[in-house]
User: Which sequence fits this backbone?
């Protein structure tokens, strides 16, 4: 699909400097631009490339004024980075704007779906499923009984949504994600063997949530595991049964959250963080990568380490830790000299 500079400028509410009729059909980095491609300049350190790029169109900030002759047509906007992101989103909407039900796929007679829905081949839609308008379900997706998927959500290939789970509006669930598998609930008997505790709750995912590839969110033992509005989960994250994650919290890859822990709003949690069960983490908390959280965390704390310490204390302690062999040697020398 081709777009002219003027069409792009209209979408971004920008101004064209150059040929408004030049066309592009692909995107590129500014240093790798080719004829027929669109790029952008936001970071000043890439400014030299604007004079040598072979891209046909470049999105730039309104304040940008070329200091040399350039061949590329410019689209001037208030914020080049945000505008390019907006254009990527627009491009994705067009690219993924599939509709219709592909064959073979199975849709239970008791289920229903809204307008402009796409259901890819080899997908399975169970009993009493309710799918809203503009939902995209890509091939090889499993949707269990009594699931609700609200308007404008996207479920990518290979995702599994178990029975009774609820997915909000404008959610994205990436390939391999599993929503609503049984929580890790077992109890030992007198013989030391483990019996399974039935997991009869569900998972509730509110609006504007993104779930990364191969991330798993377990159903509650009773009640619901809840992912609040605007949460963003990276790939390969484990969220255990009865966890609640507050709105607009972001969590990076390979983090694990144990059962019944409550995480507040607007938190930022790095990769490979381990969080024990049955604790509460406050709002606006920041946890550095590879930290281990074994206690309740107050609002606005910044933590690092395992077990985690306040961020400043961790850095001070680490300085001493690096010098520990030297410190021990000094102590041993003092002890030796004392007895000589």
Assistant:
């Amino acid at each position: 699909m081709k777009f002219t500079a003027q069409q792009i400028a209209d979408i971004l509410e920008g101004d064209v400097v150059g040929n408004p009729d030049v066309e592009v059909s692909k995107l590129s980095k500014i240093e790798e631009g080719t004829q027929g491609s669109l790029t952008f300049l936001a970071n000043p350190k890439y400014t030299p490339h604007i004079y040598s790029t072979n891209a046909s169109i470049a999105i730039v900030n309104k304040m940008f004024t070329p200091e040399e002759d350039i061949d590329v047509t410019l689209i001037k906007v208030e914020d080049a980075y945000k505008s390019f992101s907006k254009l990527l989103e627009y491009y994705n909407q067009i690219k993924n704007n599939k509709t219709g039900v592909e064959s073979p796929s199975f849709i239970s007679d008791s289920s229903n779906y809204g307008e402009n829905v796409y259901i890819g081949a080899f997908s399975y839609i169970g009993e009493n499923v309710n799918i809203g308008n503009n939902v995209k379900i890509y091939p090889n997706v499993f949707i269990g009984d009594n699931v609700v998927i609200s308007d404008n959500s996207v479920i990518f290939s290979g995702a599994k949504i178990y029975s009774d789970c609820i997915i909000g509006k404008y959610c994205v669930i990436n390939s391999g994600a599993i929503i609503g598998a049984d929580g890790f609930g077992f109890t030992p008997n007198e013989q030391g063997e483990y019996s399974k505790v039935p997991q009869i709750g569900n998972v509730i995912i509110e609006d504007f949530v993104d779930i990364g590839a191969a991330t798993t969110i377990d159903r509650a033992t009773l009640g619901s595991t809840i992912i609040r509005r605007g949460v963003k989960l990276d790939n390969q994250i484990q969220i255990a049964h009865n966890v609640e994650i507050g709105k607009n919290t972001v969590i990076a890859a390979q983090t694990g959250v144990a059962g019944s822990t409550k995480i507040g709003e607007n938190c930022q949690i790095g990769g490979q963080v381990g969080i024990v069960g049955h604790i509460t983490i406050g709002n606006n908390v920041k946890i550095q990568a590879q930290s281990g959280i074994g206690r309740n965390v107050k609002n606005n704390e910044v933590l690092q380490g395992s077990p985690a310490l306040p961020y400043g204390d961790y850095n001070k302690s680490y300085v001493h830790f690096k010098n520990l062999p030297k410190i021990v040697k000094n102590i041993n020398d003092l002890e030796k000299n004392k007895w000589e």
Q: What stands out?
A: The mean pLDDT is 92. The chain has two domains: 3-95, 100-314. The CA atoms of residues 229 and 332 lie 57 Å apart.
